[in-house]
Amino acid sequence: MTTPVRYIRVKSTVNLFSPANRPTGNIAIIGAVTAPTTGTVIPENEPTLFSDPDDAEKRAPGDLGKSVALAMRQEPGPGLVFGVRLATSPDIADTLSKIATLPVQLVVIANTPLEAGTGGATPTAGIVALANHVKGPFGDGLERMGVAMLGKGDTDASIITGALNSDRMVYVAHKSDEDVAAAVAGTIGGYDPHISLLLKKVGVSSAPFTAQELFTINGSEGESSPPGGQNVNWLVNPALIPGEGVYLGEGYTGASGTTDKKYIDIVRTLDDITYRLKASLIASIGELRISRTGLRALAGEMEAVLEPLRRSEVIDDYLVVVPVLALFDKPQPTPEDLELIAKARRERFAEAMVRITYAGAIHRLTINLTFE
Predict the structure, then answer these.
(1) From CA 136, how far away is CA 143, in angstroms rounded?
(2) Are 278 and 288 in contact (CB under 8 A)?
């Protein structure tokens, strides 16, 4: 018997790279706890993860436990819900700093309405601190939004000024005795980032607003005009939706500037796509070369992230441009082109640009009926 000679032996192994995943519906709720005479309550200024609404009300009795339970009882519900107990001498800004590295995307201060101070005083300090907190800066994947409610029955949107005017904040007008901010945060957390929050059900009880009150909250809208909006959402029970229920009347952020992001889904989708691109490309750092092949691979990796989003209609279209790659592809590069290529190689720096077309959901529909 003869044995074949093996000059080359290959042993294959698998070492696939799996990019990190960022949750999109985790919530942190900060609030006071009424310590009972018996039983164990959660410690101060330490995020505590809850998986059961009843457990939250038991271990964090008072405003915090009620708000956590209300957020968890929304349908569809949020991902994870963390409760953070305020200290006996509360310092909301300090407590917010304790959750800066917590993997949450929505932050609420339990049972704390945004109200104007008397005699021209500043608005609720805790909500101002929340607005400043969610602006960041944060590490990759830790971007977040704050959710706050106006006082019961309040319709004045002019309170949303200064630091409060931010596309990282969500404000809700209501006529409820419950913590509407926590309920709305639970509702937002239950949906994928690109889903509009318009007419999404909120599990609370709230009396309806009058037509004049809605006009005050939302501003003027004509038959052929786009949504008005004054940075404040509201709760409504539309007659056209069968059954009884409370729904979000809009999906606005707290921003009024023309360059700000007006809708909640835009902010959440942008955060999500930004993280997906970073998580996918981190494995390329220190590996891909500044060459025609390397830069084409770079563009291909970005397209691999964006194409599934386009096919599932999260985004409408995209375009990936790597300027240096265009210089490599020129049949006869000029001396200036060659110098730019050489500079990119010396500095080991490659710029890429991604343009995304995002098609939002319809929020207003005008129908002209003609009878003849």
Answers:
(1) 7
(2) no
Task: Give the span between the Cα atoms of 207 and 132, in whole angstroms.
Answer: 31
Long-range contacts of 292-301 (CB under 8 A, 24+ apart): 292/325, 292/328, 292/329, 295/322, 295/324, 295/325, 295/328, 295/350, 296/325, 298/322, 298/325, 298/350, 298/352, 299/325, 299/352
Nearest to residue 174, comparing CAs of 141, 140, 213?
A: 213
* Token pair in block for residue 351: 């710029």
pLDDT tens-digit map of 328-368: 989 899 999 999 999 999 999 999 999 999 999 999 888 88
Helices (H), the chain: 53-59, 63-72, 92-97, 125-134, 180-189, 211-218, 264-281, 292-311, 323-328, 335-347
- Nearest by Cα to 322 from 287, 297, 357: 297
| pLDDT tens digits, 194-210 | 999 999 999 999 999 99
What average pLDDT does this structure show over 60-69?
96
Cα 182 from Cα 206, distance rounded (Å): 14
Instruction: Please state, in angstroms and rounded to a whole number, the distance separating the CA atoms of residues 190 and 196.
Output: 12
CA–CA dist 238, 84 (Å, integer): 35
pTM, rounded to two decimals: 0.91
| Contact assessment for residue 128 and residue 122, using Cβ atoms and an 8 Å cutoff | yes
With bands split at pLDDT 50, 70 and 90, how would you rate the model's confidence at 120?
A: very low
Q: Does the bond joining 137 to the residue before it have cis omega, within 30 degrees of 0?
A: yes
pLDDT tens for each residue of 8-58 = 888 887 777 777 788 999 999 999 999 775 668 899 999 999 999 999 999
Is 263 a residue whose pLDDT tops 50? yes
Q: What count of residues does the chain have?
A: 372
| 129 vs 164: CA distance, rounded Å | 9
| Cis peptide bond upstream of 76, omega within 30 | yes
